[in-house]
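Extended Data, panel c. Modelled sequence:
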Amino acid sequence: MKLTLKLAHDSSSVNKVHALKLLNKFAQDMGQTLCECFIVPEVKSLALETDESVRIAVARNLINISKIVSFEYF
């Protein structure tokens, strides 16, 4: 997880896209509380990126995250 968060904060948009894919896969294993505390804030910050490929990757990798996060969280 630590390496994935490091990738998410990298300057390379390719690394950010890879981080989003990993965060999507980790969401199922992390559980609701950890997902809401760590994964969702990272995804939110990546959704504000200026690079279009990163924003597209955010939309494509919300599937597992949206299944775990509670409805009240949004």
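Helices lie at 2-8, 13-30, 32-47, 52-60, 63-68. This feature is highlighted in the accompanying rendering.
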